[in-house]
Amino acid sequence: MTDQSAAPALVFLHGFLGSGNDWQTVIAQLGVDAQDTANRQIHTPDLPGHGLPAANMPEQVDFDAIDRWLCRYLAEHQIQRYLLVGYSLGGRIAMYHGSKQPTGLQGLIVESCHPGLAELPAQQQRMEADQRWSQRFARQPIDTVLKQWYQQSVFADLSPEQRQQLVALRSHAWGNSLATMLSGLSLGKQPDLRPWLSDSALPIFYIYGRQDKKFADIGNQIAQLNAAIRVHPIDDVGHNTHHADPLQFTQILQQAIQVIGKQHD
Boundaries of each AB hydrolase-1 domain copy (predicted)? Predict the structure, then answer.
């Protein structure tokens, strides 16, 4: 059994195309600066369909299935009290999990993630767009699709060299598995979590990069939903703040851990 006197575990959920290894720089920085690291479990699971080799896929991929996967992971590792840290898709999964009000969840620290689309036409449009991308991942060479993927406006802050590095890093991925995840977890299929965010008493921290205009706007919207949600912009970075400025991201993470810990004392 997990020691109830230990600090809540940190469970990091990466974004689409990523792996648990994406958090290593943050964890290394956390280990340097955090006084309680030795007394805290840290977990960086690969999402289904990701990692090397690709993690096992559920028979059906949707938000309920991924939440069941996360609950199984927590149970298998005897994680009873925990904080979720999620980036992009990982943040959406974390917020969906939080909306189910699980007993052991102490707080959320999410980065550049969408709370969900409120209008049916926008949901349908997004599902269609994600389905087109899904077909590309399933049918085309992975490096070809990745080159197209990183040309999207959300990655506008990346240099050509950074795009090339990401294509090389992700080129081992399994296209069919990614296609299934992208289609099943499309933003168009995600419930609109704004009503839950508006009413939630769960400690929530939202991090975004100021150069990422889309998620800067979303961050400002989320700040208006619930005065208890703490929104933290990071200067001079875009969508992936924990990669672009791990030091600043880790400082916010440490602050969040301390604040959440005091609320649960």
Answer: 8-243
> Over the stretch 68-98, which tens digit does the pLDDT of each residue have?
999 999 999 999 999 999 999 999 999 999 9
Q: ∠261-232-70 over CA atoms, to 5°?
A: 55
Render 40-70 in DSSP notation, one character per residue: EEEE-PPPTT-TTTTPPPPSS-SHHHHHHHH
Residue 132 φ/ψ, nearest 5 degrees: -65, -45
CB distance 188 to 130 below 8 Å: yes
User: Percentage of the chain with pLDDT > 70?
Assistant: 95
- CATH numbers and ranges of domains, the chain: 7-118+190-263 (3.40.50.1820)
* Res 264: pLDDT: 77
What's residue 262's pLDDT?
86
Asked if the peptide bond before residue 203 counts as cis, ω within 30 degrees of 0, the response is no
| Whole-angstrom distance, CA of residue 95 vs CA of residue 196 | 9
Burial state string for 160-196 with b = 16 or more CB within 10 A and e = fewer than 16: eeebeebbeebeebbbebbbbbbbbbbbbbbeebbeb
**Of all residues in the chain, what percent are helix, strand and coil, respectively (each to 5)?**
50, 15, 35
At 99, which helix (H) or strand (E)? helix 89-99
109 phi/psi in degrees, rounded to 5: -125, 105
